[in-house]
Amino acid sequence: MKSAELLKLKEEMDTDNSLPLRAQGINLVFGVGDTNSKVVFIGEAPGRFENELKTPFVGRAGKLLDKILVNIGIPRATVYITNIVKHRPPENRDPLPEEIAVYAPYLKRELEILNAPIIAPLGRFSMNYFLPYAKISKDHGRVFRLSNKLIFPLYHPAAALRSTGVLKDLETDFKKLPELIKNFESLLTKTAPEAKQTTEAKNQISLF
Ligand code: URA
Asked: Which of 39, 41, 129, 208 is the most buried (most CB within 10 A)?
């Protein structure tokens, strides 16, 4: 059962003293949602409200994410949402590359358990974990194939709260998601080249 395996992983994380952002008053914020969802959203790191409620995306950015999901007919409860870093960084600073590197193996295992075909990184930190050479301003809303997954990078909702231009792009990109969920099988079997990890992330599947 996926939920039992995820619970085991969560418990393992909760007792892992090597995690660099563990601290007094800082809670583990593990992923939540439908473990059979075809799409997994991956944010950066929890903020204040996420830390308090031990749930990803429950602050202002989360409310925006909820609204955009409702607008495309995919309520939040029907998808899975997690973060690459699962403890809140001090002062809400960006996670450091060496911190991301310590948390990433847990994300990898979380994704293996979920086995969703579509990964939607929210923002550049989680996007660059999958596509190190991608640029969020250029590659948001594009579809990349990485072995047997589709990677669909999106702007972080917090960036959309700061810029109406980004908000428009985010809404436009999200509108592609229902189609992507419907067509993932043919997109994965398409002879689209894999995203190369050594050069620019240019191997986009041409559908969108
Ligand atoms: N921003 C994130 O990246 N993750 C959250 O859970 C909340 C805000």
From this structure: 41
